[in-house]
Design goal:
It is a single chain. The protein is α+β, with helices and mostly antiparallel strands and 343 residues long. It has 3 domains: 171 residues, no CATH class; 98 residues, Arc Repressor Mutant, subunit A; 38 residues, no CATH class. The chain is built from 15 helices and 10 strands. A hairpin with a 2-residue loop joins strand 5 and strand 6. Helix 8 crosses helix 10, helix 12 crosses helix 14 and helix 13 packs across helix 15. The longest helix is centred in the last third of the chain and has 20 residues. The protein is globular, with a radius of gyration of 20 Å. It starts with a strand and ends with a helix.
């Protein structure tokens, strides 16, 4: 995610929306690797205003075409849109863009779509294969409340998981970039608990990237089993930029030892502290929904207090199965439940 700022202009016909600084200052070494920002923003102009929006995937980062193999088809561009009221937003969008929706869905109206997404889906309603000029787009609509909850607590690790990978931030009226820093630090924390004492930079990013796929039932029969490595190898520089601050934070606290010249290098080797006190610290700082599942596995109580978190961490460290298995099971259970709702 890039730093956002106010820029004059309309997105969804609302001049107060924010767009990223990339529109004014795109790094030269990325100019040929990414879809121009204006091309990504353009489809939003025909929709009702949104509070938060980002684009992601192989249709956004040209360098991610590595993950598509030999396919020559133009990839669909994927968006997530955060809105204050999905029901109201869909009602307005049905008036503006009825062709974005399946004809039978239009009969039920915006409130029904929102209710179905919340009760049966993962809180997100998707419109897919929407024509836009020479491409097709797919966009998911979620309430800002649910988006924030997922980023902070990993309730479903869906939007939170998307934001743990490189994305193009398009609209930010909720301080989402600042909010996501905690999500990135949590992703790094979880990854360290799953990794051995020594590992490469590629191992680190692959573990982080794989968090939101752990337990995903679709990976068993539909998804590319090498998807995670391909994502990392195709966006290594962006992963480095995304996690540099979080890594430096842990390095300054001697939790993680990074290479002397910390620059993008998938073969660079890292070493993490193996102290019991460090394990306690990492475990006790995991997001709320992970801590709740760890508490259930260890027979401890979760109440969001520091003391309760430390008691859970101690129980996990002292468990016969070990912290790696318990954290894996906790994260997998979140993702598995969410993935069933997306089938």
């Amino acid at each position: 995610m890039m730093k956002a700022l106010e820029v004059d202009g309309a997105l969804g016909h609302d001049p107060s929306q924010k767009v990223t600084q990339e529109m004014l200052r795109e790094k030269k070494d990325h100019m040929e690797e990414v879809v121009p920002l204006q091309d990504l923003i353009a489809p939003l102009d025909s929709m009702p205003p949104v509070e938060f929006a980002f684009a992601y995937g192989s249709g956004v980062f040209a360098q991610s075409r590595h993950a598509r193999g030999s396919s020559t088809d133009a990839p669909m561009v994927d968006y997530i849109l955060g809105v204050s009221s999905p029901a109201d937003w869909h009602s307005k969008n049905l008036d503006k863009n009825p062709h974005h929706y399946a004809s039978w869905l239009s009969w039920f109206g915006g409130r029904a779509m929102s209710n179905v997404a919340e009760s049966m889906g993962a809180g997100v309603h998707f419109n897919a294969f929407v024509p836009w000029k020479t491409k097709k787009i797919k966009y998911g609509v979620i309430s800002v409340d649910n988006l924030v909850k997922d980023v902070y607590t990993w309730q479903r690790l869906y939007i939170g998981g998307r934001l743990q990978k490189p994305v193009r931030l398009l609209v930010d009226r909720i301080h989402g970039e600042e909010m996501n820093r905690k999500n990135l630090q949590a992703a790094l924390t979880a990854a360290l608990l799953l990794l051995p004492t020594e590992f490469t930079e590629e191992d680190l990013y692959a573990t982080i990237c794989g968090l939101s796929y752990m337990g995903d039932v679709r990976m068993l029969f539909a998804e590319d089993r090498h998807k995670v490595r391909k994502i990392v190898q195709g966006s290594s520089t962006r992963f480095h930029e995304l996690y540099r601050d979080s890594i430096n934070t842990y390095a300054s606290r001697e939790i993680l030892h990074s290479p002397p010249q910390f620059s993008p290098d998938l073969k660079a080797r890292f070493k993490q502290a193996n102290r019991i006190s460090t394990k306690y610290e990492l475990l006790s700082s995991l997001p709320a929904c992970v801590m709740q599942r760890l508490a259930r596995q260890t027979g401890t109580q979760y109440d969001s207090s520091v003391l309760a978190n430390m008691a859970i961490a101690e129980a996990v460290v002292n468990s016969k199965e070990g912290h790696t298995k318990l954290v894996t099971r906790a994260v997998s259970s979140i993702v598995r439940t969410s993935s069933f709702r997306k089938l």
